[in-house]
Amino acid sequence: MEARDTRGECFSSDMMPFDYKTFCKQTYNVVRLVAISDTGKLEYGRFTVPSNCVCSYKKRANSSDLDQLSACHL
User: Membrane spanning segments where (predicted)?
Assistant: First the structure.
């Protein structure tokens, strides 16, 4: 999976209306893993791992409307 800067834009500014900006929002999955302890007992663990980046957009802060968020999967 290719890593993406979660603070960066996912589309160039010239592709969006002038009062909107895009940003990458990281999403996560919870993965369950099983291990065998030194005593032979099964131990379970849950780990949060990055899964994908969702391109989102919102109105720029200087816009007169309230910020609206929407998302579409890359």
Answer: none
Read off the tokens for 50.
């990055």
Do the beta carbons of residue 10 and residue 23 sit within 8 Å? yes
Contacts of 39 (CB under 8 A, 6+ apart): none
- Identify the CA nearest to 10 among candidates 27, 28, 25: 25
Q: Exposed e or buried b for every residue in 29-48, given b needs 16+ CB within 10 A?
A: eeeeeeeeeeeeeeeeeeee
Q: How is residue 26 written in tokens?
A: 């990281």
Give the pLDDT confidence of 10-41 residue by residue, as tens digits. 776 677 777 888 888 889 999 999 999 999 99
In the chain, the largest separation of any two C-alpha atoms, in whole Å, equals 63
